[in-house]
Amino acid sequence: MKTKKNTQNIRLIIFTLVFFCFTQSFCYAQQNFWEPSHIIGEDEENIELKIDSIVSQLTLKEKVDMCHAQSKFSTKGVPRLGIPEIWMSDGPHGVRAEIKWDDWGYAEWTNDSVTAFPALTCLASTFNPELSGEYGFSVGEEARYRKKDILLGPGVNIYRTPLNGRNFEYMGEDPLLASKMVVPYIKGVQKNGVAACVKHFALNNQELWRDQINVEVSDRALHEIYLPAFKAAAIEGKAWSFMGSYNKFRGQYCCHNDILLNQILKGDWKFDGVVVSDWSGAHSTKESALYGLDIEMGTGTDGLGTTTASHYQHYFLATPYYNKLLSNELPEASVNDKVKRILRLMYRTTLQKNRPRGKMNNKEHHGIAKKVATEGIVLLKNENDFFPIQDKSGLKIAVIGENATRSMTLGGGSSQLKAQFEISPLEGLKKKYKNAKIYHSMGYETGPSIYDTVMPASLDADSLKVAAVNLAKKVDVVLFFGGLNKSHLQDSEGTDRKQFGLPFGQDELLGEIQKENKNVGYILMTGNAVEMPWIDSIDGLIETWYLGSMAGEAIADIIIGDTTPSGKLPFSFPAKLEDNAAHSFGEISYPGDSDLNQHYKEDILVGYRWHDTKNIKPLFAFGHGLSYTSFEVSNIKIDKTKFTTQEHIELHFDVTNTGNRKGAEVVQVYVGKPNSNIKRAVKELKGFQKVHLENGEKKNISMTIPVSSLSFYDEQISDWNIEKGKYNIYVGTASDNILKEITITLK
Ligand code: GLC
After folding, report:
1. What does the mean pLDDT of the chain come to?
2. Ligand 1 atom, smallest distance to 302 CA
3. Active site residue 278
């Protein structure tokens, strides 16, 4: 009896199990696989299953249509299956105004004014990765609110020449700084269900001939200098998209480059996201199909201009691709891989059910924009405590220079913004100073450019100069707002600067002013290093970068002393152009020869690596930045001095604010290897820590540096390698201000 009973039980269990599985699979089959899914808790496995199922239901035409633009900034979905379009927008510092469907004109919407955040050069100058995360989250929140699925930024091309028009969009000359600052930005953006799009991959280090120049660089410099920030973005930042760059690398366009996209990005780094071309960066159907491009954008335009309207079916990855797939000239697997990547990006963005809604122009974003601005401003020189300038009644201050009133969010190319507001330095100062009298004179004029209103004829250079000099005679202190701007041939996309010195007759004007009033403080607004023939005649010099909506408030806070500057230079300021590495090897090195070939002859010695190793003193060094207070870094010690390659170096030190103002210091740790068997820079940044301190406060800081980060890229084995023996650890507060050297040994 017992046996019979057991048998019945077993049958019942089996029947129940079979029935359960059947019902489950049945419901599963009914569910639209592309139903928006929880990104939180939705396991990757499940999404991949859905993706595979969708691909199996798409027609070839539908697949091909997803791989190229349908308008200036969007790609087709599959209406038949409820698969959405993808909408993209520039840029790294804020969400660009809506552009028309089929030309570069603005759509003149009235609801797309945004917060303009500081340029990424300023963000890098904060040396504050946590702040970068807040920045990324805020700009991503605005992109989400503007219903953009891909934000076309951040850019992390290395600062190689001070003439590159787009340096203001990037994060400086050091691969470790750019790596540490870009990862939190990406994570912040993507928390909104918006894809970051890391650009321009790779070796887009100038604007001149950007869409044709062929860059040749050694594997070692490629891996040690130009790729690390992109690698960190892909592996640590888990960026959901990358943008190929216009230029060529080793003879192949970077938007469809087998080495960069297939072998390195998607192979070695296991990038599972989408590669978008730069606008008109694709040049071949076969190469786009096989060498790593997933979405072709902007073909037929140079990123700024345009050729024929609504010609999207002529794109390389449109009808020509479709026909080659039909005839089996190209494998269908190539389009399936692209579509899977695109769908994966969709599940992370448009198809993510729990995506936050986004926010725009709120006080939190204004607060972050101001915080980045004030933490990024760099006090370069401050003899006789020129800055800060107290707000004393009776004090007369002249604010001279067009940069004190000129919009710096308009212009510059694709990163330009329609800011909801932009507080100019003059406005900020007038609002901040309640007792002192603030006067303004334009001083110099920058002449009309594609972004300027045409200058009134009356404002000719001479009358401007006379007015400014006359004003300088009557005041106690002059604040000279000089620098560059976002117009053509200045800090702008599409061209490089033609000169290292400042334009618009600023230097002459400054000289005239100084004849009447020696008490001049210089506020330099640039995204690049510039020549400063007047540096010895100036006691106070501040680099403000381009600061966006909150510029005037941040600059005024620093000038009056409500905030102590704590920014550090993310790139070197050479005294003269020929002191820069790229400009030391003739035209083949910069801007390239008449065949549009370019060789990065300085190899790994970029920026301070060059200055240190060639003993060329820069005007201002990488990592330099002064404060209104003073700091002491003491008790620098290391837990041991012998290491194996798997270990970490533990550094400890105290930082004390020995002055009478709250401030922040950035302790920087560099490492070099004396008597190495290979070519090396004297030292390379391997770690940094920003420390905020009230006056009198002391903090004990620990920093760990993985020994593996001392590796070099060994071209003999095409892989990373590490030398045994002695290394020097340099601890300091600037690349030219080393406080302690510690020797360690690698066993
Ligand atoms: C431009 C830029 C790129 C931008 C794109 C769309 O040419 O190179 O950074 O995102 O086109 O405007």
Report:
1. 93
2. 7
3. yes
